[in-house]
Amino acid sequence: MYSKFLNIKNVLLGLVSALLLLSACDPEEELVGPDRLFRPTIKGVMESRGNWLGVSWQKNKGAIAYKVEISRDTFKTIERSAQVDTNYVVFNDLEWDMLYQVQVQALAGDPAKNSGVSFLGEMKTAKFPTILTVPTVNDVTDVAALVKWTNSGATASALRVYKVDNRQSPIQEIELTEEDLANQFKLVTGLTAGTPYVIYAYSGEEIRGWEYYTTKAAQVFAVGSNIVDLRGMENDPTLLQQTLQSDLPAGSVIVLERGMTYTITSTPVVSGALTIVSGLGFGPVAKVIMSSDFNFAVGSTVDSLKFRDLNLRGTDFAGRYVMNPNVSGATTVGNIIFEACTIKNFRGITRFRGPITVSSLNIKGCLVDSISNYGITTIDDEASKVDNIRLLNSTFARTEVGIVSKSNSNSVVIENCTFYKFLRTGRYLAYYRTAGADNVTNGVKIYNSILGPGWAAGEEETAAIHGVRATANVDAMGTYSTSGYNTIASTYQIPGLLEYGKPATALFENPENLNFKIKDATFGGRNTAGDPRWR
Predict the structure, then answer these.
(1) DSSP label of 308
(2) Highest CATH level, class, for 137-214
(3) Distance of alpha carbon 74 from alpha carbon 164, whole angstroms
(4) Bridge partners of residue 207, in order along the sequence
């Protein structure tokens, strides 16, 4: 009975407490919403068709106005600010071709209830109407820019060159000549590699527009190289000859002007590492016309001799070489490299005599044409030696002789090469001609190449040629021969060749004009064989 009384008492106390709480509330008080307005959200898109920027956003219930801000540095600083009672605003008289960021805040009657800031995005203002042509990657080098324009309206009179990060003071002011105006371009030189510039065109003091030019990174050479840059110098074909005759330190890199022709008329004697290369530029690679050939200083040790991005032309098909060293004392050379060169109209590319040892002879990415009876290389003395010979990613046309040696080698590698009219009748791809000194220790490897017809002479209809004559293992993989390829002696054939079964004219676009693009879609090696540039 006592327990039952306690339960009734507890229920009554709970009801009384609930009534007291309800009586404490004001019956006239309304429930309120959030303390602040919601952030505005973007509506539609931002627009700019001049040096102005228009932007709209979604209206907020309860907002009496909006604060809109723009910036060029992601709001580290505020460029412009506006307060409007609509949901659209236009900012006028901005910088042309400039990226702006936009943010907006909804304002309430009570500032404490203003919304947070909403980022609406970013947009560039329109580009200033310009007579200048938008530059391409080919319109800049590491040190120059080719500025092009269209003659319209008032005659252009000058260019002003600024660094992008400093438009207050031009680093160059260039008056335009009548010839410049007729050409509608001007070469701006003396720039710094890897640097963004903006170049303005003027008619008197009136701006006619501007464009941005970022110079390419400087060419990279070996650390410690002594750079001799002949670009931008007077148009003198003897400049290369003069430079080679000067006292060049080992590791020198001679940079030639593209589009220029240089002459070598007396023998350059190389005593230290040397590179000759076409610099970055706008024209074809530099042409070097040679009526004399390179030699090495007797007794010297030369780390490397490199020819890169050059058009090497001999003046005498019957008697001129790129290199014809003939030394009387022990001379050592590391790497001889021809890379991305055109080599044409020589008796031979390289010929070696005397006690000279070359570690490696490399022809890479080259086009070789019209080479007479000393061929790619002739080691013409038992005292001379070339340890490793590598022909890579190259094309050889109208070449009478391949590789000839009177001494041993460690290796011969021919890979990804195209041959056409290669070898006169009875000549060899590789001929190690001295008994007892005819070893190629690591063999002759011919990979992924195309062997076209021999180079018939006179009344010959075909040129029956030899393959490899050496004490060596000959390994051919992925290499094809056209129907014009014909070896004389079975002893010297190249094992493992894949027969294409058709003439070279069925395989290549226009071989007589040095166009070896593969046109036969059924050719099994169309994606794997020959110089990769023709695949």
Answers:
(1) E
(2) mainly beta
(3) 19
(4) 202
